[in-house]
C-alpha cells in the first residue's frame, strides 16, 4: 500500500548563533580595527604601482587569504565561521554546501521509498487478500446492522427494507392497500390430499423403474420421432450426467434402448443455465449432451413470432411480488437462515449444507431451513454430478413441503422443484404425482396445469394431457402454451385441419414455451396436408429462429457443422465398399426378401407413423438403433451375414436396416427424418418400369433394380407409387461420413 509521508525541513531558517560575548575581548577588537586601517592606507598607496607593474590581481589576494584561513582552521581542528563585520554569516559563503546536502538527502529518501515499496510487493509483506476480506466482512456486517435498523420502515411486510420500502418512505409510492386485508385474511389451509403418500396413485399410474419402458409396437421408423415428439421444458441442470453407465442417454429419457419419442433434442448446444421465472416455460428443442461445438441457446434470443401478448395487471403483479418463504417462526431465525443462504449463493455449497443441517437439527419445525437444506443438496448434486445426492434433495424438498405452517410460496417452490428434479432423473410418474398434488393445492394456477399436461405427454398419455389443456383453455382461452400443446395433440390424433388454428395462434402468442421447432414443424406439416402453401412461411420462420438448418432440412436432432446436401454419390460418402457389396449381391438380397414375403407376409409390418396419405406400406426390419433383430435375420441369413462386415451400417445407432414394400396407389406425405447424423441408401430390388419415384427437395429420381440411391433424409422428401405392381427396396442407413469415431460411439440412439 502506498503511503504519503510529509517530511519537515531539517534545516533551521534562523541564522546561526553568534560567538559568546565572554570570548570577545576589547583589546583584540581595538587591535583589529587599527590593523585594518593600516592595511587600507597601504593598499591605496600600492594600487598605482600594481597597475603599472601588472602585479597580483585582487582575486588572487582574496584566494590566498581564504587559503590561509582554511589552513589555520585545519590546524585548530575546527571550522571557523566566516562572518561579516556585524557578526552575520556572509551571504553566499557556506550556503552552497547546505543546498547540495538538501538535494542529496531528498534523492536518498526517494530511493528508499521506491525500494521499500518494491520490497513490500515482491516479498508479499502485506496480505492484501486478508485486508480485502476484512473490508468485505465489515461491509456485510454494517449492512446487516443497517438492515436491522431500517426494518422498522418495512412497508410491504417482506421482512426487510428494500427499494419498494424506500419509495414509500420518500413518498414516491403509497403502500399497498391490500396489505391490511392480507393481515386479516385467514391462513390458506392445505387440503388433506396433499399429505397423501406417493403410493396412493390412481389405477394405471403405478411407478415403473426408469429405463424399463416397453418398446414401441410395430415397425416404427425413426421418422415417427418427429410425428410423436413431445416438447419438454429443459431444466437448468440439463448437463447433469447420471452415475450409472447405462444412463448415458439424455436424463429426461426413461428408456435408453427404445426409440426416442419424448421429444428431447440431443444435438443443439446446452442452453445457458438460467432458471425461468415461475409460470414460464422452456422447451427442449435445443438441448444436447453430444455436440462438440459450443454455442449459446438461440431460443431466448429472438423476438416473438408476431405480436406479443401483454400480461394482464394481475399477472404483472404476480411477477413483481416477492415469494414469501418465511413463516412467523422463520422470521425469528432470519439472521441464521440468511447467513447460510449467503454461503449457498456464493457457491460454498458444502459449507451452506452444513449450516442448513445445523439449523434443521436445532429448529426441525422450520420449513425455510429444511427448504434451504434441499436447495444446498440440489446444488451439491450438480457439483458432484451425483444421482444419490440429487435423490436426497428430492426427498428433502418433500419434507419441507409437508411441515406445518409452511407458506404457500414455499410449498409451491419446493414441490415444483421436486417435480423438475424427478423428471430430470427419469422419474416421470413420480413427477406426475407431485404435479397433481400441486394442482390440488393451487387449482387456479394455470402454469402448474400446463406443467401437468406436459407430464402426461411424457408418459404418452395424450388423453390425460388433452383433458388438462381443455381445462386450461376453458379458464384461459388465450393461453398460448396450452393452445400449442392442444394443437399438437389434435394433430397426433390425425385431426389435421382442427389442429392448425391452435398451433398457429399458440405460436403467434409468443409466450414462453411456444417457440419450439416441433410446433413449427407440425404446423407446416398440417398446412401441407391440407394444401396450404403458407406451410413454407412457417418453415422459413422456424429456420430464421434457428430451429431448422434450412427450409428444406428440418431435422431436429442435429450435430452442427456436418456437410448438408440432399443427394450423395458413393464416392462422396466414402462407403464405396458397402455400395459395391450391396449392388454385387442384390439378387441374393432380393430372393431372401421375396421368400419371406411368400412364406409370411405378416412379417412385413404396416407403417404406423401417419406418413401416408393413402395406400399400403410394409417394412421388415433387420437392425434398429444399432441392434440386430435375431428373429428377423433368421429369415434372411445371407443378407445379415453380408452386412455384418460393415459397421458403418450395423453400428449406426441413429438408423435402421430394413426391407420396404409399397403397393400401387400409395402416396407418402412430404416429411423429413429426425437427424442429420445419417445418410440413407436405397437398393432397388423389385422396381416397376413406370410410376415409382422419390423427390428430395426439388429433385425427383427413380429407382433401378440392383442400383443404389443415396440421399440425406433430413431434407424434405416425398414418395409416389403409381405403378401396377408392388415396389420392393432395401433400406440401409449409415453414419454421416463426417462424424468422428467418438461421436459415433457417444451419440444417443434414435
How far apart the termini lie comes to 63 Å
How would you sum up the major sheet?
A: 8 strands, antiparallel
Number of strands: 13
Tally of helical runs: 28
Radius of gyration: 45 Å
Point out poorly predicted stretches.
1-27, 39-43, 48-62, 71-97, 177-311, 313-318
What would the average pLDDT be, to the nearest integer?
A: 75
The fraction of residues assigned to DSSP E strands is 5-15%
Q: Tell me the structural class.
A: alpha+beta
Shape: extended
Question: Which bin fits the share of residues in helices?
Answer: 40-55%
Description:
The chain has 750 residues and is of the alpha+beta class. Helices cover 46% and strands 9% of the residues. It has 28 helices and 13 strands. The strands form two sheets. Strands 1, 2, 4, 5, 6, 8, 11 and 13 form an eight-stranded antiparallel β-sheet that branches. The protein has a five-stranded antiparallel β-sheet with strand order 3-7-12-9-10. Helix 12 (367-384) packs antiparallel against helix 13 (387-402), helix 14 runs antiparallel to helix 15 and helix 15 packs antiparallel against helix 16. Mean pLDDT is 75; it is low at 1-27, 39-43, 48-62, 71-97, 177-311 and 313-318.
Please outline the helices and strands.
Blueprint: H1 26-53, H2 58-76, H3 95-122, H4 128-150, H5 163-169, H6 179-184, H7 224-227, H8 313-320, H9 328-332, H10 334-345, H11 349-362, H12 367-384, H13 387-402, H14 408-424, H15 428-441, H16 446-458, H17 462-475, H18 480-492, H19 496-509, H20 517-529, H21 535-544, E1 567-568, H22 570-573, H23 576-584, H24 586-599, E2 605-606, E3 612-614, E4 617-624, E5 627-628, H25 630-635, H26 637-643, H27 647-650, E6 656-662, E7 666-671, E8 678-686, E9 692-696, E10 699-701, E11 708-711, E12 717-721, E13 727-735, H28 741-746
Antiparallel strand pairs: 1-11, 2-4, 3-7, 4-5, 4-6, 6-13, 7-12, 8-11, 8-13, 9-10, 9-12
Helix pairs in contact: 10-11, 10-12, 11-12, 12-13, 13-14, 14-15, 15-16, 16-17, 17-18, 18-19, 19-20, 20-21
